[in-house]
Amino acid sequence: MSFLQRRLSEQAKREAEERASFEAALSGFDEPEPAQPAPAAPPPAPAAPARVKEEAPAPAANGHETVAKLRTSPRVAQLRKQLRPKLLSTPDEADEWKRGDREKEQLIVTRLNTVLQKAGMQLSQAEYEELKEALLNDLLGFGAIEPLVQSKAISEIMVTGADMIFAEQKGKLRENEIVFDDEEHIQWTAQRIVRPLQRTLDRANPMVDARLPDGSRVHIVMPPSALKGTTITIRKFPSKPLTVDDLIRFGSFTREVAQFLEACIVSRLNIVVAGGTGSGKTTLLNVLSSYIPEEERILTIEDAAELQLTQRHVVSLETAPPIPGGNGVDGRLTIRDLVKGSLRMRPDRVVVGECRGGEALDMLQAMNTGHDGSLTTVHANSPRDAVARLETLCLMAGMDLPVLVIRQQIAAAINMFVQQARLKDGSRKIVQVTEVQGMEGSNITLQDVFVYRTPGQTGQGYSHAGGGALEPTGFRPNFEEKLREHGFKLGANVFGGGSKFNK
Ligand SMILES: Nc1ncnc2c1ncn2[C@@H]1O[C@H](COP(=O)(O)OP(=O)(O)OP(=O)(O)O)[C@@H](O)[C@H]1O
Ligand SMILES: [Mg+2]
Question: What pLDDT is attached to residue 229?
């Protein structure tokens, strides 16, 4: 046996003994409530490293940034895994507990100390501290990603696999140094997230889309559908929603465009915000809705309530998932059900979070039958694309309407598209404001009122690069008269005289 083999087999033996003595200590741990006085942390063993920062891997061939991962040491990771289920008296004991609740944290720490003492486990101070934090995060928090969840600077977290976690900060999505120990660790966290929400995540319900108590949105998909392991996506709920002034300050649009949008909302135009995933549609919808006059009755309909309107007379409706184990009773309410039902609630305005299916047709009908001033969003990359998307969604309503009829409905119902985009530099901006002018033959005619341009840009449409400006095209919309009727006389400072970049 070579020296190395001998060392490896000794190490394996030591680890096996440690695990066995530890299991023995845990088996007597049926009644974990602390005997007073609480046992103190065990004395530290000689220094042994806890978290290990790996060496940064070489940059990827395709130029992608690579990240040095911050890993839990194998010993702490092993203890963390063994102890996770054992420090709770029932699996759901800590469901309502939170990180930061000193009393509960102390309870867990006391149980941990008891077990470590019973097992005669020698840990270095660094290992002990890391194990304690790790277990508190697993039992009371979001596991490995707890620091990201707590950080105010991070707006979105994506767990793509144990070794691949991305976080968005200031509009930039970057791979993070944090990792989960393994797939089981992610699944533990996923279960900890869904259980208090009365939702089930298992082979029969492998995908969960839900809202956390603080309003954040969480989406989880399990294997086998998620090929690299359980994926978790968390869109954090801003503690303070972004306001018109914030968006102007960020350069998402100009003050003149804000004036124009306010005029359009007050004048009861039907507006559709279009944009890609995570482009800022909901944020913009919230900002646009803030222009709705205080005295109007507003009905909001969403999949997971995200809108935060400040007006008083707001009825907020949210879809309901099927009742888990409902024994044939479904209990489900879809966006479509809610949109249909909303018209009997005498709303002055209907704001639908997103049209993703047949509800688009109900929404158009509502807009065409006196419920003007309605707002919604669709997933599309340009206003022209949004028209096509709406046509498809209306076909999904299953009413067998000819496309031409649907098109006529769209042309009659919608006054304007506002296109939102996330640009290459990570910023989110309005990139196109487009009037729906009507029909020409069998086609819908669109006219841009504002377009985002960059210096030296050639070609049509909006620019995807940063460093440009949302400029008036010089065209005044046909609905300008309607704005005037409502007291908005917008001048050349708003509608301008065409692009300075792209004449
Ligand atoms: N104009 C903006 N400037 C900076 N950040 C923004 C802007 N608009 C939105 N954000 C941020 O971008 C993230 C995504 O925004 P939002 O939820 O509005 O996008 P979305 O298009 O509705 O996404 P989804 O397609 O998932 O519904 C949020 O964290 C939000 O705070
Ligand atoms: Mg959204």
Answer: 92
